[in-house]
Amino acid sequence: GAGPGLLVLNGIFNPAVYGLAQVARRLRLPYVMAPHGSYEPAVFRRKPYLKWPYWFLFERGALRRAAGLQVLDARHREWARRRGVRAPIVEVPNGLFPGDRCPEELLRWRREGAMRVLYWGRMHVQHKGLDLLLHAAARLARGGVPLEVTLQGPDWHGERRRVQELASRLRLGPVVRVLREDFTTPPSRVMAEYDVVCMPSRYEGFGLTAVEAMVAGRPLLVTERAGVAPHVRRAGAGVVVDPDAGAVARGLEELLVRRPAWPAMGRRGRDYTLRHLDWNVIARGALRDYAALVS
Question: How far is CA 141 from the centre of its chain?
Fold first, then answer.
């Protein structure tokens, strides 16, 4: 016949996911847990009074009974293993559809002027490392490095004000601007107007922003804690640093020194994305791995 099928459950610390896992067990339907993040210590530091009890009562059991664990980055295997989860690992990175590509004619790189740096994503100071970026910008500005930093994205937790207040305390008025989200312009087209895209996260399941930046030909700064970091490194599309203000500052300074190489870095990142991070390519690999789980 058609075989047992496979259910993919998306979410982390989510009661609905746990409930579906219980239903799948009763129906003897194999399932894969896809938390879209890792179980590293930083994840448990936010609301630990809720997450640790939920982990021991529900999450860990659902993971241990799963046919597989779907991760965005193979390095996330380590934290699953440390927490006693032995399910087979399936790596499925984030990707882009062909229609998300930035047109070739928009690929331009400025050869002079202040380095325009963009953070594109959710306003969350601790998780996204926005304080690290602002402290790095302040350090570079004091050193006379020509820099313009834009932070743009949705404010789901009321943290835009915190970002603006920190920029004010650091006297970054002429250097930093904080913009509201733009859901009408394709991200890669927005990014094409900047020189460098920065993702200074303290922890990050993957980081689709980086993929959007690569397809726009933008050199990248990402932290080691982002799941996309191995792809940036393999592509030679930017610099990978520790989630630390000093390291972010040094990484931005390195990118400025390497300005003549921006076109080559951008084209390498774009080419890598189109070959390896296209959803059609990713889907073929995922289906192959799913078939192996249920066989």
Answer: 27
Tracing tokens 């996309």 back to the chain, one arrives at 228
Sheet arrangement for strand 31-34: 7-10, 31-34, 68-71, 89-91
Cα 106 off chain centre by = 24
User: Rounded to whole angstroms, how far apart are CA atoms 208 and 204?
Assistant: 10
- Across the chain, which has 295 residues, the per-10-residue mean pLDDT values are 78 97 95 94 91 97 96 94 95 87 84 96 95 98 96 94 96 95 90 96 93 95 96 97 97 97 96 94 94 87
Alpha-helical regions (H) of the chain: 15-26, 41-45, 48-54, 60-64, 77-82, 125-128, 130-142, 160-169, 187-191, 208-215, 229-235, 245-257, 262-276, 279-294
Compute the distance between CA of residue 167 and CA of residue 171 in angstroms, rounded to an integer.
6
Cβ-contact 245, 132 below 8 angstroms: yes
210: closest CA among 241, 176, 237?
237
pTM: 0.91
Question: Of 57, 63, 101, 62, whose CA–CA distance to 80 is shortest?
Answer: 63
Which string of DSSP letters, residue by residue, matches 83-96?
A: TT--PPEEE----B
